[in-house]
Amino acid sequence: MNDPFRLDGKVALITGGARGIGLAIAQRFAGAGARLVLTARSLSPEAEAALAQTGAEWDFVPGDARDAQTPDRVVAFAAQRFGGLDILVNNAGVASHGDTPEFDDERLELILSTNVAQVFRFCRAAVPHMRERGESAILNIGSVSGFIANIPQNQTAYNASKAAVHMMTKSLASEFAAEGIRVNAVAPGYIDTDMTRGGFENPDWDPVWRRMTPMGRYGQPDEVATAVQFLCSPAAAYITGAVLPIDGGYLTR
Ligand code: NDP
């Protein structure tokens, strides 16, 4: 009997796939048999070595996702490189906190262009290629912040951007279900990456963040990656429009 969690031969594009959660997803997908195209502004030698170690076929396309031309260019490269596109993981994102009265336009624009507009553009660019495949999957990285207002830090723009990702996920799922394109999201709690390390080291934030997390610990990138693999695999064939929390119970409080 076939293992429905495997991704053998699938072509997967992962944005922000060069570190943090995106790199963990790339490593999981590689282990499941996928061929990968990763994109970000930079790829470290450490990440390159980790990817080489998987033995999978992969390629990297440098690009700033905030540039409106990048999604079309990267998706076209991915589809051409491996002859099609089966999976898109919209993982690239940025966080920025601050009290709203002092949160300037530059930071607002950074959050909305990176976390919302580029996700829309990558999906828009991917759909025509996915239509040709019959069965395909888009997976967006949302956040618990799309459901609740984090404390003690204020981060209204980020929270709103992730709520937009969740709604985009449901809307796209509805729009493309009949064409075999499943669209889901995950909503991680606090995961140990470059994005959150400053908060873990902040004596005012760390105890609050832990107290708000029933499991009492932060998550690891691979704990997100395994769920992403599931949602992008044939094992999730009847799941679309879902937003799955991966948060140590954070949303129970
Ligand atoms: P990291 O900061 O570790 O990685 C972010 C990735 O996104 C990097 O690969 C980065 O590459 C890429 N990226 C950021 N901006 C751009 C850009 N303009 N163009 C292209 N690539 C870009 O973050 P995480 O791994 O923690 O986060 C991944 C996703 O998970 C994000 O969407 C984040 O919002 C979400 N998330 C994270 C949580 C956490 O606790 N860590 C919790 C909930 C959600 P480069 O800088 O080289 O371009």
Describe this structure in words.
There is one protein chain. With 253 residues, the chain is an alpha/beta fold. The protein is 43% helix and 15% strand. The protein contains 8 helices and 7 strands. It has helices at 20-31, 45-54, 70-82, 105-131, 156-176, 194-200, 206-211, 221-232, and strands at 11-15, 35-40, 58-62, 87-90, 136-141, 181-188, 243-246. Strands 3-2-1-4-5-6-7 form a 7-stranded parallel sheet, with helices on both faces. β1, α1 (20-31) and β2 form a beta-alpha-beta unit. The radius of gyration is 17 Å and the shape is globular. The model has no long low-confidence stretch (mean pLDDT 98). The structure holds NADPH dihydro-nicotinamide-adenine-dinucleotide phosphate (NDP). NADPH dihydro-nicotinamide-adenine-dinucleotide phosphate is lined by residues 16, 18-22, 40-42, 64-66, 91-95, 114, 141, 143, 188, 190-191, 193-196. NADPH dihydro-nicotinamide-adenine-dinucleotide phosphate (NDP) binds at residues 16, 18-22, 40-42, 64-66, 91-95, 114, 141, 143, 188, 190-191, 193-196.
